[in-house]
Every structure is written in structure tokens, then in C-alpha cells.
Write a structure and sequence with these properties.
Elements (H helix, E strand, L loop, with lengths): L4 H27 L3 H26 L8 H25 L16 H20 L1 H5 L1 H5 L9
Helix pairs in contact: 1-2, 1-4, 2-3, 3-4
Length: 150
């Protein structure tokens, strides 16, 4: 079954709220900065809720109301470019050169952002396509929802 908008939101929050936090914790240790990685994770969750609405509309135009997994990769690249552009765009326009996105350090490098974002995305994507679908069969038949009735 194709995920509903509520299913998308619940799955995004569940995966990023568990696996995403675990991976982000290790990046925070490596970077010796616990604020920026977790702030980025929160922005990915929040902006992702909006992106999910757009993805849902785009999927409704396809005949089978679903799309191949490669489209998830395209969506992740668009999300990453949007977030990085927002971070650097705000930093460039701020009068003191400081970011206005709370929690994001001005010393965030692109390689750090890409490493964190792509690792979180790749592992949650693998879990969603593999173990999640096999361990929680009902998730697939409830449109991706974890809470609520069908």
C-alpha cells in the first residue's frame, strides 16, 4: 500500500526519532558539538513534514500512486540542497555573518553536513525498505501509519 500523508509523517518521525538520534549522537561526539547536529536533525524532521505533502501530491499523479526507490534518493538530494542553501543563504544575508537558524554554527562545513545528512538518510532508508517492512507487516498495510485506525 502507498503511504498516506499521516503514514509518511509517522514513519519519518519514528525513524529519525530513533535511528536518526542514534547516528546524530555519534556525529556529535566526532564533531565535539552536540547542538548543531541535533539542530540539523530537527530541521530535517520539520522541513520533511512539508516535503512529504509535496511528495504525496506528486505521487498522486502517477498511475500506481507509488514510485521507485530511486525517487527517494532524488528527494533526499533536493531536501539536502534546500537545507544547505537555507543555512548558507541565511548566513550570507545576516548583517553580522551569523546564522539565524537556531543551533547551527557558522563553522559548519559542507563535508560535515553531507556526511551527517547522507549517513542518517542512507541508514533510515535501508531500515525502511528492509527490516521495517519485514518486522512490522501491518505498517505496510496501514499506509505507513503506526498510530490511529485505518
Amino acid at each position: 500500500m502507498t503511504p498516506t500523508i499521516l503514514g509518511r509523517w509517522q514513519t519519518r518521525i519514528l525513524l529519525l526519532g530513533t535511528i536518526g538520534i542514534f547516528i546524530t549522537f555519534w556525529f556529535a561526539l566526532i564533531l565535539r558539538n552536540f547542538i548543531t547536529p541535533f539542530a540539523l536533525l530537527i530541521y530535517v524532521i520539520l522541513f520533511g513534514l512539508g516535503w512529504d505533502v509535496i511528495y504525496n501530491v506528486l505521487q498522486s499523479w502517477r498511475w500506481d500512486r507509488d514510485w521507485p526507490p530511486i525517487f527517494f534518493l532524488f528527494g533526499a538530494v533536493v531536501e539536502a540542497i534546500f537545507l544547505w542553501g537555507l543555512i548558507k543563504g541565511i548566513m550570507a544575508w545576516h548583517p553580522f555573518g551569523m546564522p539565524t537558524l537556531p543551533g547551527v554554527t557558522p563553522r559548519l562545513f559542507l563535508v560535515q553536513f553531507v556526511a551527517h545528512y547522507s549517513t542518517v538518510w542512507l541508514i533510515t532508508f535501508i531500515v525502511m525498505l528492509g527490516p521495517l517492512k519485514t518486522a512490522f507487516l501491518q505498517w505496510r498495510f496501514k499506509g505507513g501509519r503506526w498510530l490511529g485506525r485505518l
